[in-house]
Amino acid sequence: MKLAIIILTFVSHFCFGQQVLIDSCGTNDSPSLNSHEVQYFNKSLENQRNQSGFDFRNKKIGFAYGNFGKGIISKKEYFDKWGRDYYRSGHGVVDILLVLTNEEKLKSGGYDAIVVSWSKTGIYGKHRDKLIEKLKPKKGS
Question: 114: closest CA among 39, 25, 19, 66?
Fold first, then answer.
């Protein structure tokens, strides 16, 4: 019986520690993620992450939306437009995780990955290259 209580206490403590504080997500435009944003994306993109072994901790993330990632948005815009609402409703945002290669990371200005929302198509070839180029900071900014 004591063992069962210890296990239940540990499990409930562990689960509580994994809770995403959604109002702490998207509070700024930094491409670096805070711990709540890391939890949000590690959970919401779990299936895609498992395929690549990607973890959002200590990563620089770009955000885009629409078919082929036609528009670049900030992290704050992502959460303001749909991230918080979809988290609260229990319905996931339709996101695609693009983990960048070392070469793509250099071309993008140091981003590790791009989260693309609401694209009905995969992002490959020239469309991927264009999206990566859009992330690169403009000279003088």
Answer: 66
The two three-digit tokens of residue 5, written as one number: 């209580």
Could you tell me the two tokens for 63?
A: 């955000």
The model carries a pTM of 0.82
Cα gap 18→58, rounded to integer Å: 17
Q: Which amino acid is residue 70, in one-letter code?
A: K
What is the number of residues in the chain? Answer: 141
Summarize pLDDT for 15-67 with one digit per residue, the tens: 334 688 999 999 999 999 999 999 999 998 998 888 889 999 999 999 999 99
Residue 72: which of 24, 120, 108, 102 has the closest Cα?
108
